[in-house]
Amino acid sequence: MRPKLTLLSEDLIPRILEEAYQILLKPGIKVLNAEARKLLAEAGAQVDEETCVVKIPKQIVQTALSTVPRTFHLYDYDGNPKVEYGGDTVQFDPGSSGVAVLDPDTFEHKTAETPDLIRLIKVAEQIPQYDAQATMVVCDDVPKDLHDLYRLYLVMLYSKKPIVTGAFTNKTVHAMIEMLAIFAGGQEELRRQPRAVFDVCPSPPLIWSNFGAGNLITLARAGVPAEIVSMPLAGAAAPVTLLGAVTQHAAECLSGITIHQLAKPGAPIVWGGAPAIFDMRKGGTPMGAVETAMIDSSYAQVGKSLGLPTHAYLGTTESKILDMQAGLESGMGALIGALSGINMISGAGMLDSLLCQSAEKLVIDAEGIAMARRMIEGMKVHTETLATGFYDNEINFKGGDFLKQKITMKLFKKEQHIPSSVIDRDSIRVWKEAGRLDTFGRAKLRVRELLASYTPPTLDPAKVERLHAFVLDLARKAGMRALPAHELSPVTA
Amino acid sequence: MHEELYKQMAQSIIDGEKETAVELAQKSIELGIPPLDAITNGFVVGVNYIGDLFGKGEAFLPELVMAGEAMKAAVAVLEPELLKLGEAREMMGRVVLATVEGDIHEIGKTLVGTMLSAAGFEVTDLGVDQPAEKIIGKALEIDAQIIGLSALLTTTMVRQREVIEELDKEGLRPRIKVMVGGAPITREWAEKIKADGTSEDAVGAVQLAKKLVGKE
To answer: In the CATH scheme, what is the code of domain A1-379+419-493?
Structure first.
């Protein structure tokens, strides 16, 4: 039996949805994109062009919900379906869009540049706990106009995994779709086997920005999956109650899905988010707070009740270094997310409220994720009798008896997750001899190993050349003479 | 000559397939292969391989134990043949193993016994909760070169020192060497109580035992 966490009682879910529908009528949703307003008006919503507030009747939303795919896949470079959105699948990817990386030697949060992102990609690529890559940091060594697409470009060069990404403008989303299409072999192929999902964020409370709504429309028409990342901040940009935040999340997601499905019925979209409570002392948005995780778990339950694929930002922390706070918040978040059956759980590797990525944290978080995954596998019945069969032969009433059984050898890896060297289970003696390393010290060694064992993916050189040319052209338009050099830079004549 | 069979022998140990190992041992007898060759060129290769993997963290205790058990079973088949030929597998040494008085934990010690046997030591395992005089008595009786003392509890590890002090008092050292082990046992502890060595795991214990009998 798979263990499941459900925080909402059966009677609460319809109440949440009912109030969300009421919110869509009063106060309504502010939609700052003209095309989205037009789509909504044509569908019968009441649009105030002056204030941009749209009142969306339940009927329109329910029609939109009826066309959303219940499941879809993300594919790797080779065209294998590797990530499954829908139902109770649980998958993990690193946190996206950090601006800094933790320097493992100085503990500085240094502004991320090209080599930093490459280092993160190489590590995440080799960790099986990460089902998808993410465009983990923006690189400060390219102009702002390239920030979103340049990180996708690097992931595409250094990885084969599916990708969780996002665009920062209406213009660049087209460019990023084009980049993915180059590798997919065309727009139609990309639609059929999408490699990436794009996060799209409404602005709390209840606003679809010009660029957010525009991206929803573009992605829907391209058939590239969109992931709504609704961010109610309970107590500041959303009601202070956790249930109030969950309800606002529902209203924001329902309105986003409506715009998206009106643009192209049947396009894939995810009920996701990155909510938080609002910290009343510091004014921050604690992503590692348990209440934040409770909002996530609850809205996922609401999304599931509608049969939708789900996503959440969990397994991350406010801590600035890889200390116990980082460990306990990240581990608990990963476990809550897994127990909630959330399809894609983003956030691993992140410190400082999603601002700072760390390769060392990626390898530590992978262990928490592995534990959470093992947990949701639950108690398994492997044998006909639960125990009696184990006593049939060669039992000498000695402690090691069961080590000698063939079935032990056969089953122990199915029952036990074998942790990496990041987790210390040594005797004190071996621990001392190995240099008395703490978690962070062991993580540094593991990262070093992974960087040494990394091999670049084998990619079609013709496609790579086209990608280089496409991105270089955009870079030149943005005022660069060349892209930053790195290991897999094109060899110029 | 017989390379393929030797390979299968090694593989049967690596896979922990006791029955296969026994069959292969019997087959080697039928083929007239000298039993010592079968052990040295076949089965031992498998034990060493799995021991190396274990040391690197790539093999696990069940694999190690199963390999040791398969090795023991194969050697049991070949030993009568060795005797008939008037040969003997080079005996590495005689070891008495025991968990000290007041302590009943023995998984690690049993593992050490299995691996020592597989490596060619003659092992007498006294079991758990053994007082010093009984351990020493047995060692004298079988003319053991090594006593291995196990303790899991911090409250019982002091008993390891008692055995060593008793041996010293009787003037039985360095004739009898003492190796100590168990979860709380550190190198510092081993030095402090003047033991002849300690090891983290069963694979290391075999290396230590070989060193103590001068057969590295």
So the answer is: 3.20.20.480
